[in-house]
Amino acid sequence: MSGSLDLTAPLREAIAEAEELVANAPFIRTEQDRLEGYDYLAGRIRMAMQTAFDYDLDRPLFINPTHQFSRQGLDNPDAVYFHAYLREGVEYVVRGRRGTSADLSFQVMGGAYSADSAATSMLAYDDRELEIDADGRFEFTYVAEPGAKTMIVREVFNDWDTEERGTLTIERTDTLGQPARPLSEAGLRKKYEVAARSLVGSIQTWFAFPHFFQYKEPVNTLTPPRSTPGGLASQRSSIGHYELADDQAMVVTVPRCDDCAYQAIQIGSDWYASTDYETHQTSLTKAQAEADPDGLMRFVVSEVPPLGPAGIANWLETTGHRTGSMMLRWQRLERDLTEADGPSVVVCALDEVAEHLPFTKPLGADERAARITARQRAVARRMLS
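-> structure tokens emitted (385 positions)
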């Protein structure tokens, strides 16, 4: 038997539409921006195919859709994300072994993020609410309530060098032991159509999303800590966006918080995605950052390294992005945060940075290389793709 079924037509059309969206993004200023857009597009195509072909409502499993090769939604460089699609009224059993990450959290979402609105958080908690045995194992049952569409699990790492991943599974109790449905033309056609919608929809969504939140704030400012929109009950975040010339720097000062397991700062691109956190230092946790004797962490956001050719320990590289998004996160909190726990911001000329860093010394070239080497090794050990 021969002859094309032309099942891929919707996806081909969607790729062409997505390419136009990316190529004509309003924030493209440089050739690097444009090339990043095409790299971003590859990740969106990958996500769309995974969304359509890897998820199965009859045989659920946790998929890792967001990683260094598929960035989206200002993805957290410190997190491994897992998603499983749900069917309303169905009973699910989640089992796992708790690793040593700083935080392990579960969230059930209703609906989906779109260019018009955020998804609804229906349930959110961390593993402190689970019964975990001496071997770190846990199990719980969840019956998907009306409107429940997705279960999201985040495994978040504060110390990339020492914390280890756990294991995680999800299953439907009513479909165990049953074979998968055989392939059909109608089923495959539907999957390609789902991939097409997911591809265009995800790009439109993440183009619009930061304008709901980050870009409503004045440039070069950060909000006080507050509940993350659509986020976890045990998380607080501070958001903003920056615009810096090559001879400018932003100094972000924030108290080190000892009342949470995880605290971090991140800068991202106008694609509302993480930038290269593997071979550049575009994010830092409180375990990776240096705190000064007064209990404050002082970060410098700039294109040019501050205080010397190798920069400083708390330098966040803008990697050619004169504009971008920013976020600070606190997770697994033991108390609520106040405005005093949040960041303050100063924008200054690069040659004035030292005035705002009373305790900071420049790094040597070997120290800088060692920090990047540690990041590369940690990402290779931890990440899934």
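The chain has a mean pLDDT of 93.
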